[in-house]
Design brief:
single chain; mainly alpha; Peroxidase, domain 1; 9 helices; 62% helix; 0% strand
């Protein structure tokens, strides 16, 4: 069972249009879904239901109802010119770790809790992470998140593995670059 990329792209595009139009009422309505079980806040149906794939079952609809309030809380998407390499949620966490620097001590433990989360725990765990992303302007690939949440329960846990790989590889790449950046700064 996969979220169709086109339906996911159309959904995220519609959410982004709310931001571009500065439709604060619609975004506030979507945020009402935060902290509530996905799909239980009837007020957000007009913003989600029209974008559900035609063959959407309850599990797939859950993904859309999970993402909509999270997007409304933190509507920053990966810029299209930065879509080289990893852009999944693990890459976003790595970007936060870089921005926090030495203050990122508890971030890895929080990220591991997210990776270990059961499907029902994801909305809250993702929201907690987004509360850290927001003040640091860390982007999220919302289309990737839709697809990944749809496959979260796969027995091989490949989504969690991809997120972990993205986090580690991004962190290592930045750590490898930091000594040379420091030596460049020292030579100036």
């Amino acid at each position: 069972m996969k979220v169709q990329d086109r339906s996911g792209e159309r959904f995220v595009q519609a959410l982004e249009e709310l931001v571009e139009r500065e439709d604060r009422g619609a975004l506030a309505t979507l945020r009402r879904g935060l902290g509530k079980p996905p799909g239980t806040v009837v007020d957000i149906y007009p913003y989600v239901v029209p974008f559900l794939p035609a063959d959407a079952d309850d599990r797939r609809a859950w993904v859309y109802f999970t993402v909509a309030p999270l997007f409304a809380f933190h509507p920053l998407n990966w810029p299209s010119n930065e879509r080289r390499g990893w852009t999944n949620f693990g890459a976003s966490v790595a970007q936060l770790a870089q921005r926090l620097g030495e203050r990122s001590a508890g971030l890895e433990a929080r990220f591991l809790r997210l990776l270990a989360a059961e499907r029902e725990e994801l909305p809250l765990q993702l929201y907690r992470m987004l509360t850290l992303f927001k003040p640091h302007q860390v982007p999220v690939s919302w289309v990737d998140l839709l697809r990944d949440l749809d496959q979260w329960d796969h027995p091989e846990r490949f989504v969690q593995q991809r997120w972990a790989r993205a986090f580690v590889e991004q962190r290592e790449r930045r750590e490898e670059g930091s000594p040379s950046e420091r030596s460049d700064e020292a030579s100036e």
